Fold each of these.
Amino acid sequence: MRLSQINVNYGFGSTGIIVKDLQTLCKHEGIDCEVVFSEAREDVLSDTYHMGNVVSNKLHALLSRISGKQGYFSKISTWLLLRHYDSYKPDIIHLHNLHSCYISLPMILKYAARKHIAVVATQHDCWLYTGGCCHYTSTDCFKWKEACGDCPARRSVNALLFDGTKRMLADRYRLFGGIRNLTAVGVSRWIADEARQSVFKNANCIAIHNGIDTEFFRPVRKEEFAGFERLRSLRALKETNPGIFLILAPSNKWFLDINRETFEHFACRMTEDMRMIFIGNGVDKSRLTDKMIDVGFVSSREEIRAIYNMVDVMVNCTREESLSLLNVEVQACGTPVVTYSNTGVKETVDGKCGFAVENGNPAAAWNAMSQIKERGKAEYSDACRQWVRKEFDKDTNYKKYIELYKSISRS
């Protein structure tokens, strides 16, 4: 069996790590697997195909902004990939993230239909079954269930002149409809159910949760914090104030305009024994109080693991995600999570060691966090770890893809 995965990244970012993990697992199972990618940073295995370049990608981005259609250009790069497929002869093409201006989706799907190649399409977000939007619940737009057009999110996806959403959705119905052996995989049950209502209504739709490395994301000893200079102030804070309660907060969610009420609700209720630790990009420093600490963007996996271990809880006011591996990684380190519950995020907590509260309800988030503070992190840590190992271990979950590939090859 020969498998070709296509994804924008290889070896970094959430989907880039997933395709590399799947490739490694395939090799162990005796499956010939290559990864087609647009960008990699390091550790590229031999069975890969790099498509496009900076010039073709920028041209694709420009044409997308003008036409309002993404995933329709890079025709020369895609034609070269199809010539490679003529010799590689894949039995299955596994589509991941295609919406980063590097590939022509129509050319790929027409080729697969003509050559009778099975297609697996993983819904890491909503792009493949809509007229081109990655998420739609925040804009409360569900036109994709019938016909897109006059898109309320057009400007946010940089479609500057024309609205191509109606054409894109119609093309998806036609192009995916031409694939005889088509499987749509949702990374959550929520997104799998959504996909069934649109382009993939006639496909085999299943859910396979993304997974994490539970041997890496784990509780660690305090000595393992010492190597990170940036965390020295947090360690000192903990040592001089043993009762301090640290709340982890992803900056890119907390500083969105839609979450201003949530931010202000927490800011005015923080007590002297509490500190909010913002991590990642997007902080508006002018809004920080003396009980808030901006750690900034952290690229080191070891350092991010140390932070997950050091804090007492994470409050994630995410409004829409297909899943949220951030919630999973934090719990794998023994730290409970409070999260808004819309979309697939609610599947990352079990109501025992992590809690989903009503979307956009800051009082509910505060109350759930306060319950954790009252009982103490230690009451939840073992249950968090067990929950993640049971539901989100990457080896267990990605073996479901191996079973899927094998079932497709037998059909």
Amino acid sequence: MMRSLFSAVSGLKAHQTKMDVIGNNIANVNTVAYKAQSVTFRDVYYQTTQTATGPNGESGKGGTNAKQIGLGSSVGAIATAIETQGASERTDNPWDLMISGDSFFVVSSAGNTYFTRAGDFTTDLSGALVTQAGANVMGWKFDEDGNVVKDTVQPLYATSPEFTYTAPAVTTAVSITGNVDAKSTSDSVFTVNFFDTLGNEYQATLTLSLNAAGGNADVTSYSITGGTVTKNGQATTLEISCDGNLEFNAITGDPITETMSSLQLTLSDPDGTNNIRNLGINNGNESTLNFDATGVTMYADATDIKSAKGIDGAGAGKAVGKMTAVGIDEAGRIVASYSNGDTKFIGQIAVTTFPNPAGLEKIGENLYAATLNSGEFDGIGVDITENNGKVTSGYLEMSNVDLSDQFTSMITTQRGFQANSRIITVSDTLLEELINLKR
């Protein structure tokens, strides 16, 4: 009789633990990337009042089974549905990240490495990418050539001063395209733009003039003379000239490539008041720019000449770039965009997987710690694309708690607790009857 009391008490304790887990699941129904837990019970020690016997051929007696009385139940396991992905929630916050697949983000807090599925990140004062609790998101850096260096993970920075600017580049070549009106004999004015090594922008005005007919009637020739040169919109004393002519086939209007692709513009500073040492290819007090006009035609249409920095994309130069936007792509790479058109990878989020993710230990704040039964983290991590996964910016993984399942478990747990309490009540009644025997 005393056994039934203690068995019922163990049942109460086990069901109370299960109710605690259910309560925690429901409390976290809207927690980012929370993984639901479930409880299973097991029976415990048995008292054997009669052991099993085998059949005896000599006596003709058959075998008997053991007689055992159980002594209650206990919690067998509290399992986490860690491999069941929650639904996605759109936030449109670029620092909110959702992992697809079975990987985990790697974070560091107070020198300890943890893991999380919750991608509700933000940036701190230093520009570091951190969790809402301040743990650093870990990953890899990129070298100067734009290649990721997959070494021991380190904190990632997205908006630090290190990445505010990209360097300017000097223009070494310019080109023009468009049309010169074959019907007109008037001069035409156009401009070319270029940058120096510091990112200052220059604009030179050039004049296109029809040359007098020469000895070759099949060729129409135009000369280019220089005009004003401004620096960041301010007048300078620089002079600009061209070393050749634009020549066209007088019959077809097509450019004569040989003469149109080998021109140069020369900048000079006769007064010495403007230093031209930052203007590219220098020769004493002069600086030259390769000049290409093979994209210009001479047809009977209005003159319309446009200039471009660079020739076939080379030598264009650029102004200094200031960061205008930053985001994260599907490979977890932090991508910065700049005002001069540059894009730059400034870091990549590392992830990791475990042989037995169910063996991870929950430590709160949406974090997990590795255990002897989960497998170890190698300190480097992997690229999420190696596991056919991806990172989605602007979305979060929601909790995978199924409320219908939790409420059903709550009902069965309540009934189990209630039934065990009735065992205690009935056992108490039986004890009372024993006490009353002596009255």
